[in-house]
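Changelog note: in this version the structure field was regenerated for every chain. One regenerated record is shown below for reference.
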Amino acid sequence: MDQRIDIGIQPDDQPYEVTSFARKHGLTIPVADAVLFAKGPSPSRAACDTAALAFLCAVARYAGKQGER
């Protein structure tokens, strides 16, 4: 008898679902959708995670520059 326990971890070759990606990275649904769309039709989860981090770093940097004004 083969019993498997699903703990919600998906292989890297499975595409993200928009809401779970948004929740993981603290993004809104439209922003998460845009990041996933920008990475192409079937990017790896690692590539999407990297893109989300780059987006968040860019937003933080922009916000920092706005605060200097």
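Spot check on this record: The two ends are 65 Å apart (CA to CA). The chain has a mean pLDDT of 84.
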